[in-house]
Structure formats: C-alpha cells, structure tokens
Amino acid sequence: MKAQADLSIEFCGVRFENPFCLSSSPVGNHAEMCARAYDAGWSGIVYKTIGLERSFNVVMPSPRLNTLNVFDKRFVGLQNAEQITDRPIKDNIKDLLWLKKNFPHKVLISSVMGYVDEDWAELAKMSEDAGADILELNFSCPQMAHKTAGYRTGQDFHAVEAFTEIVKKSCKIPVIAKMTPNITDMIPVALAAKRGGADAISAINTMRAITEIDINNFTPLPNIHGHSSPTGFSGPSVKPIAMRFVSELYNSKPLNLPVSAIGGIETWIDALHFLLLGATNLQVTTGIMRYGYRIVEDMIEGLSDFMIERNIQSLSEIIGKAAQKIVDPSEFNTRFQAISMVDEAKCIGCGQCYISCQDGANQAMIFDKISRKASVDEERCVGCMLCKHVCPVWDCITYKEVDTTKIRHAAIF
Amino acid sequence: MKKAIDTEKIKQFQSMREPLTLQAAIRESNRCLLCFDAPCSAGCPAGTDPGKFIRQIKFYNYKGAARTIRNHNILGSVCAFLCPVEKLCERACSVKALEDPINISGLQRFATEYGKHFQIEPLRKSEKNQGKIAIIGCGPAGVGCAAELAKMNYDVTIFEREDMAGGVPKWNIPEFRLPAEAIAYDVENLLSLGVDIRFNATIENNEAISMLLAEGYMAVFISTGLSVALKIDLFDNYINALDYISFLRSVKFDHNNIDLKNKNVAVIGGGSVAVDSAVSAKACGANKVYLISLEHLDELPADKGEIELAREMNITFKAGCQITDVNANEKIITGLKGMEVEWIKPENFSPSNVRKVEGTTFALNVDLVVQAIGTKPGYEISRFHKSLQTRGKGIIEVNDLFETNLEGVFAGGDVVNAGSTVVQAVGEGKKAALSIDNYLKNRENKA
Ligand SMILES: Cc1cc2nc3c(=O)[nH]c(=O)nc-3n(C[C@H](O)[C@H](O)[C@H](O)COP(=O)(O)OP(=O)(O)OC[C@H]3O[C@@H](n4cnc5c(N)ncnc54)[C@H](O)[C@@H]3O)c2cc1C
Ligand SMILES: Cc1cc2nc3c(=O)[nH]c(=O)nc-3n(C[C@H](O)[C@H](O)[C@H](O)COP(=O)(O)O)c2cc1C
Ligand code: SF4
Ligand code: SF4
Ligand code: SF4
C-alpha cells in the first residue's frame, strides 16, 4: 500500500536489508529472543557476548540495573552491572547455529570476549563454524574488569592490536572491534584495531557512571548487597557522547574504516543523526529494553518516508553528510552574529526567558509585568539563545542576523 | 488551559475544536504507556488501533500513524471528531488508573490532519477480480463495509438515495462538531480504493434484493440507517414544529436563510441530538432556547461534554418536564404549556411512566419547536424483500456474522443496532465484509 524506500546497506562486505541491528546485550540473549527480533524487522543481531567458562566464571549481580530519572522523565539513561553471557558456550553455539539455519537472509554477528590468546582464537573459530557472518570483539565491557578483558583491554592499544590479529588469523569472516568510551581519545585504539586487521569499528559500549545514591542508607544504586560501582551507562543520555565518538571515527583519515554506531538510538531521527555523522550500521539495546523490538517498525517507516520525501535513493548518499561540517572551534565564523527575537503573539508570559537571561546570560530580556510579554533589548542581547531553549512555546523565540561591525562582550557595569 | 470549546466558532458554523499542535501531540503521546495488548485498541469498535498509532506519533512516525488510522478505519478523520471516546477507547485507557486518560481522539485528529497535509500516498486501487457486491446506503456502515471489501479485491457498488456520500454525518451532524473537510477527505480515500457509488439511487422496490442478486451481485449489504424522526402527536399539523433531522439538515446546508433572531425555540428531548439541535438554534441567533426533557438533569442521556456545551451556549434546561398543551394561531404554535414530572417506577425512563407534579404548571412563548426524541428506519424495511426478518419499528435481525435470514444478504449499522455511533457502524460494516468474504469462499468451496 505504501512505497518503501531502499534502506539496505553494505557493511563489512555483508548486505543488510536495513541498518538496524540489536547490539550485544540481554536483548539478544538467546535464539528465541533473536528470532522475534528478526521477525519484528531488525536486519541483524549482535548476539550477547560469549566467552569460555574456563576463563570467566560469570555470576551476575542482582539487582543489576538502575535508571537516570530527570523530574517526571524516567529512564533517560540506564545503568547496568551486567557481565558477558552466563550461559554455557555449547548452548550459545547451538543457538547461533539454529539462528543462521532459520534466518539465512538475516545477518548474524557473534560478539566474543577472550581472556588469553587461545580463547580469542577458539571463540572466533567456533562462531565462524556456527554460521556467524561477522565477529564483534568486545574490548569494552565496564564490568569485566579483569586485567586483560573488558574495558581495560580497550584502553590498552597493544592488547587490542594483538587480540585482533589473533582473531583475524583464526577465521575468515570480517571483524568489528567494539570500542569503550571510557577513554580520552578513541582514535589511537581504533588505529590499533586496524593494525591488527579489524574491518570496522563499533562505538560506543557503555560509559562508567553512577546514576543515583540511596539517601536513606548512603549507598549508590544499584545497591548490590551494600555495595555498588561505576558501571555501564547507556540510553538517550549517552547519545551525545556516542555521536561525538562516531563523528571522530568517521572523520579520521588514517582510520578510514566503516563505523557501526551504538548509543541511545530509539527513533528514526536518532538513527538519521548517526548516519549523518558517518555511521553505516546502527545498533540498539536500551531502546529495546525500554520499549521492545517493535520500535524498529517506526525506525523503518520513518526513515523510509524521509528518504522518499527527500528523493534519496540510497543511504550511502547521506552517510557522513553532517560529519563534513564538523570543524575545530577555532575555525568558527564569528563574523556572523545574531540576536534573539520574541514572537509577541506566541508569548504566554511565563517569564522563564527573563529569569534565565537575567541569571544565566546577559540581562538582555525585558519582561513587562503589566502586559506579561517578553521582549529583547537588542543592545544587550549577545545571541546565545539560552532564552529559546527555556521557552515553553517551541517556536516562539527565534534569532535574526545583526550588524557584525560592533564587537559584543558580556555586559560590563 | 486553552478552552476545549470555542463558542465563537460555533456561531460561525465552524469546527469548535482547535487541532492539536505538534508540540501538544508530542507531549500527549509521551504520556501514553504504549501498553502491551493495548486496552484502548480493544475498546475501539472499528479497530482503529490507537495503541499503535499513538506509539507511531511518539516515535515521530507521523505518516505511519496516519496510515494506521486510514487503513483500519476508512472514516478515521470523521471518527476523530465524533467518537464518544469516554465510553470507548479512552474509557479503556490504562493511564486512567493514575491520571487523566490519553486524549486519543485529539491524537487521532492530529495524525489524520498530518497525513492529509503532508499527503500520504493514496490508497491503492486493486484489481477487482473477486466478484460484485451491492451495498445499500452510503453512510458509515456502508462505507466501512465497502472499503474492506474493495481491499479484498471485490467490485463494490454502493446505492445511495442522496446525491452525496456520508450518511448522517454528512447531512445532519452540525458543522461545529464535524467539519465538512473531514468527510470529504475520508470519502476521497474510499473512492481511491475503486468503489463505485451510484447516487440518487433509492432502493425501495420489494423485489429490490432479489433483483440485485439476479443481476450478478453475489451478496448484498443493507446499511440504510434510521432516517425518519419520531414525532409527538401533540404537534401534528403545526407548520413550525419540525423534527431534528430536517432542522439540522437545513441549518447545515442553509443557515444563511434561517434567521432565529429574537425568536424562542423549544427543543424536545434530552439526548445528544437534542443538544445538537439546541446549540444549532443558538448559532442561528435564537433568543431563548429551551431543552425540554422528561429526564431530570442527572438523568439526561446526552453526555457530560454535550451538557457542558449547552451550558456554555446559554441553553435553558427544562429537565424533568412534560409539554401538556400548545397555544397556537391557526397552524402556527405560539406557546407551550407544561408541568414538571416524576417517575412512577424508578429507572424506567419511558413516557408512559411519568406522573405530573401538581402546582408546577409553566408556560413558554415559542416561535419554533424541534422534536428530537429518536428515529426509526425510513420506510417499511420489508419493502426490500417481503420475507426479510425485522423486529420493533423495522430494525433488521442479524446473527453474530451480520447475516440476515436471507441467503447472501447482510446488514449492519443503525438499521441493525437501532442507533449507535459512527465508529460502531464502521466496525459492523468491516465485520460484515469479512463475513461476506467467508460466506462467498465457503460457497465456492462447496460448489
Ligand atoms: C444529529 C446526530 C448527531 C450524531 N452525533 C454522533 C456523534 O457525535 N458521534 C457518533 O459516533 N455518532 C453520532 N450520531 C450517530 C451516527 O450518525 C449514526 O450512528 C451513524 O451515522 C450510523 O451509520 P449508518 O451507516 O448505519 O446509517 P446512516 O448514517 O443513516 O446512513 C445510511 C445511508 O443510507 C442511505 N439510505 C437510506 N435508505 C436508503 C435506500 N432505501 N436506498 C438507498 N440509500 C438509502 C441514506 O441516505 C444514508 O446515506 C449522530 C446522529 C445524529 C442523527
Ligand atoms: C544490560 C546491558 C548489557 C550489555 N551487555 C553487553 C555485552 O554483553 N556485550 C557488549 O558488547 N555490550 C553490552 N552492552 C552494551 C550495549 O551493547 C551498547 O553498546 C550500549 O548499551 C549502548 O547502546 P544503547 O544506548 O542502545 O543501549 C550491554 C548493555 C546493557 C544495557
Ligand atoms: S519564555 Fe517564552 S513564553 Fe515565557 S515569557 Fe519568555 S518568550 Fe514568553
Ligand atoms: S476511532 Fe474513535 S473509538 Fe476508535 S480509537 Fe479513534 S477515537 Fe477511539
Ligand atoms: S491504553 Fe492508554 S496508555 Fe495504554 S496504549 Fe492505549 S492510550 Fe496508551
């Protein structure tokens, strides 16, 4: 009944019917869940990270989740204290086999984490034999804080390079290295993975963070029998950080590898943001934990409509289009200056712009208590647009360009 | 808060409802819990699936929301204005246990408006290779049935007495409640499915159904609604005592020629149609408008929103009253006399169950009386076919599958349920379409 745009992408030489994949986490814990995700419309799955029992004896803590709530908005971020899978390797391999057999046209990605060289080699081989199309190397779990595993590996360039190299030698399928954001600069780590032979980079895994303290017993949450730890933080709150990393990966000339973006994707607009910053492939966990696999329907339909409206034939036409516009702050064109404008007819007279400008900007907002209308003192306004962001009427405050011969500074009395 | 009802608009014969802004739609959709097995969806008689379209709005998939509504309910725009949601989808809303339910019809109006404004692709006309079906009456039930059959590739012809589609919503429901554009848009969608509508085609010959079946129509769906208003004997023979069907129709299509300035109007009845009539009289400039009902204020069948609307429009309630006598100048009523009444037996709101209260006589000067006490089918239904089974005042008898007692003949909407809602009629039409398809497939298998 409706025209559907071509959302297919090629990533690591593999065709995906759309860019939307599950990221490695409980949303892809076992075959039955993955099958439902495929049926819902997800093109690929990064299966929950597998490891070998002989190296990791995983016992999950409980409770293991807490959320970041901001006033009435709950779940703007999710903190988890989960490790890699706690299922036996033979069960996971059986599930991978079953999935490839039953969903041959969908993409199956096996996420692995070893402890010593032999583990990485063995996991890579086992995954390939089970039918995985691609491997993802988990160099980034904040909770697997062993010396040579988890995010600590991801901070150690040599380990990343060495493990990637071992994996590449042990299998023929393409390899993605999954990065930790718990680092100042991701590029050197990604370059190390590239030297080891990685075909693509995925980012980000979770941020180490503390979401909340129980003020009754002074214990951070999740309260795991009296203790807690800065653990993996994900969801909409980390999206800005993920976007920064993704754009840096994409813009790095020496790196020049395709990027799979992860971090806070819930809607087609989030997806589009990452594509525009250079991602080819997209992965989701928290959005699914919060709303279910069904969110992919709206990602597909929304992105498809966007493409049809803009006459975009293929996503490759738009990948990286916004990343090209990222420059160093020193290169901004400051000859362009603007001031804010209030649409008096739309102003409802709350005075929030006044308070914010008064106490947090340049005292340039005028508020008439009789008419209850805000207006701008054009001489004082520096065009920071704080007022626009606090105004409850979304299209009430806009900005206009002004004469730039005057150099404007914060008010001096 | 912004007022939900804009009385100025009513006086200009325009829709009284402001569309939900994008900002308001985002906010409201984010209150929705996106329930599992959404109870609101189960509460919609036409299966419009609010649980899904609200989720689509929340995730910025506005066109998707518009498609969901249109694909599930061919009168999705009309319903978004007319549904008594507090009895349907919103009544089932889970949020009600915590705070106000989700404004479902507001979101439905937002999404249909969005789809119209940003022009979602028209519904597709499929190849009509499943055989011919005849539908009698192009109101909500007929339209709902036609759309569903057309999507299943049946070649559908609707026979309609009037010269435009839409039934009661088109002819009688005041513009302040339902803007004409809403019906126009929905009918356009119906036509894009490739349904053929024959206008000025009244079916009333008592061989009509047999003739249609003989002409190669494989099944017939009767959806002729209720088109004759019930009247009160007391007002017989007076030229200024109208029924609400003709009154509302002339206000809707000819309000420029209806001047009620300085005139007093008495509307008899206490239901929604009585309120619509009273408000319409006010919109035409009437001085005093009385709403006279046997039911007392707390017993009025009109719902809360409507009673509030009547109050906003300064309608005078004469609830718990009965008209006993008429003052007239030849054939023109000049005044009414009445008394307060009480019920003889409780909980039985029928005219035969009232007792007049001594010493409560009142008199009103009136220039126009509008009777809004109910409707019945517009003719002897048996005229369609002499053995079509009916009950009461000509309500057609059907089983759960909307089958009448005649082979290949189905019926739905007001003519079956004795008067309900637009969304109910659409739902019955849709269900009947599935039954027709099943019936024909079974018949084919047997042959
Ligand atoms: C004033 C008023 C206000 C209302 N307000 C609301 C509301 O706010 N919300 C709501 O949900 N419902 C409302 N309703 C009820 C709603 O309009 C009906 O339930 C609905 O229209 C029933 O649809 P239908 O298709 O069964 O019948 P109808 O709408 O009556 O349609 C029947 C169609 O059949 C045609 N027809 C009749 N006889 C023949 C014949 N012999 N040959 C060919 N064609 C024929 C008629 O011309 C008409 O087009 C209101 C009703 C009235 C009268
Ligand atoms: C409960 C939970 C468990 C996770 N487990 C894994 C894991 O086993 N392996 C892995 O690579 N990433 C794991 N992640 C990280 C996610 O795959 C993803 O990188 C991160 O959550 C950011 O994306 P999101 O905002 O869409 O959730 C986990 C995340 C969560 C919330
Ligand atoms: S914040 Fe917006 S609405 Fe409030 S006073 Fe300022 S301009 Fe007006
Ligand atoms: S069609 Fe009516 S009852 Fe159904 S969801 Fe929409 S407003 Fe509610
Ligand atoms: S029942 Fe209410 S809260 Fe639940 S999905 Fe429907 S509208 Fe949303």
Summarize the structure.
The complex is a heterodimer of chains A (413) and B (447). Chain A is of the alpha/beta class. Helix content of chain A is 30%, strand content 21%.
Could you state the CATH homologous superfamily of the largest domain in chain A? Aldolase class I
Stretches of chain A where pLDDT is under 50 for at least 5 consecutive residues are none
Order of strands, main sheet of chain A, comes to: 3-4-7-8-9-10-15-16
How big a fraction of the residues of chain A is strand?
A: 15-25%
Largest interface: A-B, 18 and 15 residues
Structural class of chain B: alpha/beta
The end-to-end distance of chain B, rounded to whole angstroms, is 64 Å
Based on Cα principal axes, name the global outline of chain A.
globular
How many discrete domains of chain A? Answer: 2
Residue share in helix of chain A? 25-40%
Query: Cα distance, first to last residue of chain A?
Result: 65 Å
Spatial strand arrangement across the major sheet of chain B: 3-2-1-4-18
Just name the CATH architecture of the largest domain in chain B.
Answer: 3-Layer(bba) Sandwich
What would you say the CATH architecture of the largest domain in chain A is?
Alpha-Beta Barrel
Number of helix segments of chain A?
A: 12
CATH topology of the largest domain in chain A: TIM Barrel
Largest sheet of chain A: 8 strands, parallel, barrel
Would you give the CATH topology of the largest domain in chain B? FAD/NAD(P)-binding domain
Let me know the largest β-sheet of chain B.
5 strands, parallel
Mean pLDDT of chain B, to the nearest integer, reads 94
| Number of strand elements of chain A | 20
Please render the helix and strand layout as text:
The complex is a heterodimer of chains A (413) and B (447).
Chain A: E1 9-11, E2 14-16, E3 20-22, H1 31-40, E4 44-46, E5 65-70, E6 73-80, H2 89-102, E7 107-112, H3 117-130, E8 134-138, H4 151-154, H5 157-170, E9 175-178, H6 187-196, E10 200-203, E11 207-209, E12 212-214, E13 219-221, E14 231-234, H7 239-251, E15 259-262, H8 268-276, E16 279-284, H9 286-291, H10 295-310, E17 337-342, H11 352-360, E18 365-368, E19 373-376, H12 386-390, E20 397-402
Parallel strand pairs in A: 3-4, 3-16, 4-7, 7-8, 8-9, 9-10, 10-15, 15-16
Antiparallel strand pairs in A: 1-2, 5-6, 6-14, 11-14, 12-13, 17-20, 18-19
Helix pairs in contact in A: 1-2, 2-3, 3-5, 5-6, 8-10
Chain B: H1 7-11, H2 22-29, H3 39-42, H4 50-58, H5 62-72, H6 76-82, H7 89-92, H8 104-117, E1 132-136, H9 140-151, E2 155-159, H10 167-171, H11 180-192, E3 196-198, H12 208-214, E4 217-222, E5 228-229, E6 241-243, H13 244-254, E7 265-268, H14 272-283, E8 289-293, H15 304-312, E9 316-319, E10 321-329, E11 332-343, E12 354-356, E13 362-365, E14 368-371, E15 375-376, E16 390-391, E17 395-396, E18 409-411, H16 414-417, H17 422-446
Parallel strand pairs in B: 1-2, 1-4, 2-3, 4-18, 6-14, 7-8, 7-14, 8-9
Antiparallel strand pairs in B: 5-15, 10-11, 11-12, 11-13, 16-17
Residues 82-84, 136-142, 159-162, 167-169, 172-173, 177, 202-204, 223-225, 227, 248, 272-273, 276, 378, 413-415, 420-423, 425 of chain B line the site of flavin-adenine dinucleotide.
